[in-house]
Design brief:
about 230 residues, alpha/beta, 11 strands, about 15% strand, binds zinc ion
Length: about 230
């Protein structure tokens, strides 16, 4: 065939050549990705501890404002080999903002991540899953890839440790992108993750950046938005 059946999102430039966003990893690679949003917070070290204990990589989509409050935790994420992604400066709903506001949300958070000592983020996740065509153009100009999710553990609603673990694990099919939180208020993810991480390890967890994604020829429906949310 000449071309591999999958690409590794670490090579974000290659992925960007065919899609501005990924909604799932390849179902052919037996990997799931654990992602933690809205941090860092006082709960981040606990999560890092569990991940390290089980040698499970993860991706943290951090909020710029929180990265400024806890730069040492952002640095710790990067030092642990985890991917640090951008989740806007203030967790703003992008579709409610114009081009200037949207760009500032992304760039300010990226600057905070760099200032904390992590590499320049290549991955971005939209707060509330909201974005529009303006967001896509801005990300393209910044050479950043949007990463959605396939499983929402709704841990922010504090459903309890076993419920979070159950939701994460029952959705942990090959290519799953599991959304959890390590910030944004009292979270029980830190404890649930101690249950999810060993199982994720059994299923070969990957950070979102290491997740294999299908090429559009085989997964166009998965990889391309069918309809953008109205602004
Ligand atoms: Zn969020």
């Amino acid at each position: 065939m000449g071309l591999p059946a999958w690409l590794v999102a670490r090579d974000v430039g290659n992925v960007l050549a065919y899609t501005p966003l990924i909604r799932a990893g390849s179902a052919r690679a037996r990997e799931v990705a654990l992602t933690f949003d809205d941090g860092p917070s006082i709960y981040t070290p606990q999560i890092l501890h569990v991940l390290a204990q089980w040698h499970v990589p993860a991706t943290f989509f951090v909020i710029g404002r929180e990265a400024k409050a806890y730069p040492q935790f952002v640095r710790a994420e990067a030092q642990a080999g985890d991917e640090v992604g951008d989740h806007t400066e203030t967790h703003a709903p992008m579709s409610a903002l114009g081009p200037v506001g949207q760009r500032a949300q992304i760039v300010d958070a990226a600057n905070a991540i760099r200032a904390a000592g992590a590499p320049s983020p290549k991955l971005w996740r939209p707060p509330y899953g909201l974005f529009n065509s303006t967001t896509i153009s801005i990300l393209r100009s910044l050479r950043m890839l949007m990463v959605m999710w396939t499983v929402d553990t709704s841990d922010y609603a504090r459903p309890g440790v076993s419920r979070i673990a159950y939701t994460a694990l029952s959705g942990a099919r090959p290519g799953a992108l599991i959304l959890m939180h390590d910030g944004g208020g009292g979270r029980s993810t830190g404890r649930a993750d101690s249950q999810a991480a060993p199982s994720a390890r059994g299923r070969r967890a990957a950070g979102a950046a290491g997740l294999r994604v299908d090429r559009p020829a085989t997964a166009r429906g998965q990889l391309r938005p069918r309809r953008l949310p109205s602004p």
